[in-house]
Amino acid sequence: MLAICDGVYVEPTATADDQLALRQSVAGAYTTVTKFYGEFTAPHPQMIFCQTQACRAYFIGSYAGVYSPLGFKLPNATYTAGKPTIFITYTSFVGQAHSLTVAHELTHTETLYRYGGGGVPSWFNEGIATLVGNYPDCTSQTANYVADFRTADFEAAVADSSKGDAIYCQAARETNAWITANGKPKLIDLLAGVKAGNQFYTLYGNLINH
Ligand SMILES: [Zn+2]
Questions:
Q1: From the CA of 108, how far away is ligand 1's center (Å)?
Q2: Which of 38, 61, 86, 171 has the fewest other C-beta atoms within 10 Å?
Q3: How far is the CA of 124 from the centre of ligand 1 (A)?
């Protein structure tokens, strides 16, 4: 793999244009996440960008884009990262999407760093990442598909249907409504509170959109 900036790798066959676009995507993602949180506090993750299926099969396995916080092997992949890594098959994301996907995954990096060893529900994690990264595109995704995030199996709902993006967008609407109602400092406090050992729903309260 070829390093295009510190800890960021592409396949050696990536064109100069692709390398430039990816460098810009990485810089843009850091700007986006920093703007949302006020400060980027997590150690910068390694990033591995694939363009071919062979690269994807070796590094990423089943996913197109994912943040892997620990150094484990992804499902159906061969590679073991050994450090927090964002993996993206950028050729799976057309146009602007590959840039926005980096911001989505980098949001996971910062969010997880802030809540640390505490637990947050998957819908909340994906809602924040979708909201901040502005990906997946939610412009035409307005229907609710999950009756109640508190009791639904989020991953199963996403995996089980063609409505994965719509469910992410429902999660993004919920988190956005919560931030609008409570303010950004409360979100920062919520994540710190979870890190300190408090239960997520004790701090979050009732869902806004239910
Ligand atoms: Zn995500």
A1: 7
A2: 38
A3: 10
Residue numbers of the domain that contains 88: 1-115
- Cα(41)–Cα(165) distance, integer angstroms: 28
The H-or-E segment that residue 4 falls in is strand 2-5
Ligand 1 centroid to Cα of residue 54, in Å, is: 23
111 shares its domain with 121: no
Residue 126 Cα, ligand 1 centroid: separation in angstroms? 5
The 8-class DSSP code of residue 92 comes to G
Ligand 1 centroid–CA 28 distance in Å is: 17
Task: Please answer whether residues 135 and 103 qualify as being in contact, where contact means their C-beta atoms are separated by less than 8 angstroms.
Answer: yes
- Number of structural domains (the chain) is 2
Q: What is the pLDDT of residues 25-84, one digit of tens each?
A: 999 999 999 999 999 999 999 999 999 999 999 999 988 899 998 878 898 999 999 899
Indicate the residue type of 173: R
Instruction: Provide CB contacts within 8 A for 181, sequence distance 6+.
Output: 208
User: Which of the listed residues 115, 135, 170 is the one where a domain comes to its end?
Assistant: 115
Using the mean position of ligand 1's atoms as its centre, give its distance from the Cα of residue 133 in Å: 9
